[in-house]
Each structure stands twice: as C-alpha cells, then as structure tokens.
Write a structure and sequence with these properties.
This protein is of the alpha/beta class. The protein is built from 15 helices and 21 strands. The two termini are about 25 Å apart. The protein binds alpha-D-glucopyranose. Pfam families: Alpha-amylase, SusG_C.
C-alpha cells in the first residue's frame, strides 16, 4: 500500500449506502453500528477506505441527500458517538473514512432555508437562489430540475421563486454569497476536526449558477445528450451552460482545497454530471490546487464495449495532464453494472473480468457495496418504490431503488440484513450470491476481487503508473501501465468468446496471482471468454 499522505492516489474506496448495509437495531433500516460490525469484512476486501453515503440529520425525502443539520447524525442511523466508534474501528483496521458532503443544496427543513424564505430582508435572505417571476407569473427562466418539472418553485411569502436542481425540497444554496460559502466550509471543517479522511462531494459542479439567470440552449438535433440522467428525462434535452459548471466554481474549489490542505492526508472526490464530463474532471483535478479526484458517469452509463471504454480512456488521457480520475462502474444512482453491462453475459464470469479491468485503470476506484459479489440489479415492484425520481419517470425509468436493496450477507431470512422486512425488499436472486455463499469458494467473485486487489498492490505500476492504450483488436481492451522500471501489459476479454491477438510489445514474463487464465505463445495471446492477462514487458 501507499504512504499515508497519498493513499488516495490509486486507492480503492468502498462505497457504503448506510440504509442498506446492515440493520443492527431491527427496524428494517441499516445504521452506523451495523457498518461498524461489518468493517472487518470491508477490510478483508483489500480496499483502502470507505465512502459513506449521507447519514446526517434529514427528512430523508432524497434519502439523506437533503440535509437539515450538517453536523449531526440522523437518529435513524444512530448518534455522533456511534460515528466516532465507527471511525476509530476503521482506523484500527487501516481503513480510511470518507463521508458525503451535500453542500450544493440543503433540505427545506434546514434552519438556513426556513429563515431565508420568511421575507426578502432576513439575515439569510440571499443564502439561497431567489428570483422574481416573469411578468406573466412563470418561472424566471427555462432551467429544469433533474427530478422532473421546472427547477423553480414559488414561495408565497417572498412572492419569488427559489431554485432547486433536484426535489422542490432541496433548495439550492447561493454560492455567490460569501457567507453561505464560508458556512459550508465551516461545516466541512467540523468533520475534519473529528478525524475523517476525506469527502465525496455531491454534485460538485452544481455549486454556482449564472447570476444573470440566462436560459439554457436546447441540445441540437442529433447531438449527444447529457450524461448522468436517463435519456427519457427532458433534463437531458438542454445544454447545461448556465445552470451548472460555471467558471466561478474553480475559485471556490481552490478555497476548499486550502481547507483540505490544513489536514494532511485528507482527500476529496467530486461527483460530476455534465455535458462535458471528462473535460470537467480534468479541469477540476489538475494542478494539485483543486479537487484530488472526481468521477463522471462515463462508465456509469449504458455503453460498455471494449472500444467504448478505450475511447473514454483515450479521451481523458488527451485532456488529463496531471489530472487524476476516480473510476466507478456502479453506485447508488445507477443500475448495477452486472445488469447494466452484463445482462447478456455470464453472471459469474463477467463481473470478475469487468472488475479486474476497473482495478487496472489509471486512477482511483469507487467500488459500490455488493459489486464485489457481482449482484444483479434488483427488481423492485411499483408498490415498493421509494425513490421520488422513480415515481416521476415511471415506467420508462424506474428510479434508483434497484441498486439500493439490502446487502445480502447470508442466504437466510432477510439475507442476514435485518430481523424484519427491510425498507426495500431483499432480491431473491441475491441469496445465491450472498457473502456467506461466496466466502469459502476460492473461485467466487468475492474472492476474485480480494485476489485482484492484492495483485494490484503488489504492482506499483498498476495503482500509480502511467497508462498507454495499445491496439489489441476491436474485441479486446489493452493498455500498458508503467512506473519506474516496471511495465505491465494488461489485456481484457470482456466478451463471451475466445479472442486472439498479436501482442504489441515484447513480453518478458507472464504475471501470476491475479487468478485469470490465458495462453501465450511468443507474441500471440489467446484469451478464453471473460479472461485477462497481465505481463511484464521489456
Ligand atoms: C447526487 C447523489 C444523488 C442525489 C443527488 C441530489 O447525484 O448521488 O443520490 O439524489 O445528488 O443530492
């Protein structure tokens, strides 16, 4: 592993969705004590740390991404004391702890918004984005909410509209106001003082909006739509020029970095949903004075062929310089990769090679709970749907509940997650691939992930080296990772057919310890279905 200051560079961060990890109290909802109980398991995966999705005080209309007190734990998840215990246990296991910071918007229940909406003259009057209606009473401009409808809701007291990029109950903080910005940085300092190792920054390119409130232009016919929202969502029909990714954000990210730098060894990973996500990721993570890392929806999207992935990598490489990506193929917002990418594939073999590919890219990695088990997306019937986003766009888009169902620990009652019926149903297909079933089988996806991560750490080129894509034919994905004297050629067969290729470089030895099979005769490589090869080259 790496030193304590740069652990995040090439680190693998295991994302925990607290509601669905482990219910220690028997109320059907996961909690902090449940997470603490399972940290040994997390450490056994050979990951570097965890990212905890929000556990702060919240009315839970967006399941914690609507915060009403940034400095406390919601009683549903436990207490601040429980968090301190979690942190100490994680650190004793050598795991870093990153927490989610949702500073772009608050809950409408947050005291700042309660005050702000009272009238136009209170102390927080300008802390949110308020604007007068057009003369005909309609919203100030054409901006849309990702979760449906206009991005503006009228408030009768102020006789004004307020901005929200998500639910109407998630008012957007006005980052043009210096006091509001500072207050959010102070909230972050609270957690740094408690000893957290970093933040996942929700919607990091949404902090600022155009102060002139100009209309967004439509996406020209035939041009590609915004990543990060389903195509059935009209939000993707606009070019998001004025509502997000404003130039002022860069200066704020520098202030945020200055705060982080007061706490050596801490880090940030920003979430970027944008019209030009890779450009934004490069812009925000280059130079060592803004974010440490960011992730985009490029690999959280539908396309998945070797040539698509190659194109994403090459595009980022062209822009990158010293920018540092964090790649993710699953998380709490998208259909699980085993289904999204692997629906037509072998459900056991495919996730292993897909994850091996993910772990070999240049950058850090977010690994979503259950991804190490190769879990398919759960089928959640309409009557059980919780996600407000799913309710709005049903049935074309069923929302995000299918990737948020309980973690299957055993094949017993409620998958060992809870003693009662959980908030989202356990997916029956998950029982066959529960942790207890995979644990003892050396060939399981779970043990393949453990092996692959140990292999990654044994080869510095794999976690911290440069990357150059090589041509190994249309069906395969190949690249060279290089650090110091070590050069590793990596080739992946993500298809269900055997593939053969002439190798583009001189192989000096085949590497072992990763668990995949390949046959090499001089410079010709034969990769059976869903296999990978790793070789030292001269
Ligand atoms: C981010 C979160 C998502 C949430 C949204 C609004 O995209 O990942 O879960 O709904 O922001 O906060």
């Amino acid at each position: 592993m790496q030193d304590n200051l740069t652990w995040w560079r090439g680190g693998v961060i295991y994302q925990i969705y607290p509601r669905s990890f482990l219910d220690s109290r028997g109320d059907g909802i996961g909690d902090l004590r449940g997470i603490t109980e399972k940290l040994d398991y997390v450490a056994s995966l050979n990951v570097d740390g965890v990212w905890l999705s929000p556990f702060f005080t919240s009315p839970m209309l967006d399941f914690g991404y609507d915060v009403s007190d940034y400095r406390d734990v919601d009683p549903m998840f436990g207490t601040l004391e429980d968090f301190k215990v979690l942190l100490a246990k994680a650190h004793s296991l050598g795991l870093k702890v990153m927490i989610d910071q949702v500073i772009s918007h608050t809950s409408e229940q947050h005291p700042w918004f309660k005050e702000s909406r009272q009238d136009r003259t209170n102390a927080k009057a300008d802390w949110f984005v308020w604007a007068d209606p057009k003369p005909d009473g309609t919203p100030p401009n054409n901006w849309l909410s990702i979760f449906g409808g206009p991005a503006w809701t009228f408030d009768s007291r102020r006789q004004q509209y307020y901005l929200h990029n998500f639910l109407t109950s998630q008012p957007d903080v006005n980052f043009h106001n210096p006091d509001a910005r500072q207050a959010q940085l102070d909230n972050m300092r609270f957690w740094l003082d408690l000893g957290v190792d970093g933040f996942r920054l929700d919607t990091v390119n949404f902090y600022f909006h155009d102060a002139e409130l100009r209309d967004n232009p439509p996406v020209p016919k035939g041009e590609s739509k915004t990543l990060g929202a389903p195509e059935t969502n009209p939000y993707t029909w606009q070019r998001h020029v004025y509502d997000i990714s404003r130039p002022e954000n860069v200066a704020f990210l520098k202030d945020l970095r200055a705060l982080m730098d007061e706490y050596p060894g801490t880090t940030t990973v920003g979430e970027i949903g944008d019209d030009n996500p890779l450009e934004r990721m490069a812009e925000y993570t280059a130079g060592g004075d803004k974010l440490h890392m960011a992730y985009t929806f490029d690999l959280l999207n539908k396309p998945r062929s070797a040539s698509y992935i190659r194109q994403v990598i090459e595009r980022f490489q062209r822009l990158a310089g010293d920018a540092w990506p964090c790649w993710a193929t699953s998380n709490h917002d998208v259909e699980r990769s085993a289904s999204r990418w692997g629906a037509e594939e072998d459900p056991i073999a495919y996730p292993k090679v897909m994850l091996a590919m993910l772990f070999s890219l240049r950058g850090s990695v977010c690994l979503y709970q259950g991804e190490e088990l190769g879990l398919p997306e759960a089928d959640v019937p309409f009557e059980r749907i919780q996600d407000p986003y799913g309710k709005v766009l049903w049935p074309e888009f069923k929302g995000r509940d299918g990737c948020r169902t309980p973690m299957p620990w055993t094949d017993g009652t409620q998958a060992g997650f809870s003693s009662i019926e959980p908030w989202l149903p356990v997916e029956t297909r998950h029982l066959d691939v529960a942790v207890s079933r995979q644990q003892e089988n050396p060939d399981s996806t779970l043990n393949s992930v453990r092996r692959m991560l140990a292999f990654r750490y044994a080869h510095p080129a794999l976690f911290d080296g440069e990357l150059n894509v090589v041509d190994v034919g249309e069906e395969l994905l190949g690249f060279i990772r290089e650090k110091g004297d070590e050069k590793v050629l990596c080739v992946f067969n993500l298809t269900g057919n055997e593939q053969q290729t002439a190798l583009p470089a001189n192989v000096t030895s085949d590497l072992e310890g990763h668990g995949f099979n390949a046959a090499r005769k001089d410079n010709v490589l034969t990769l059976p279905a869903y296999q990978a090869a790793f070789m030292h080259i001269g």
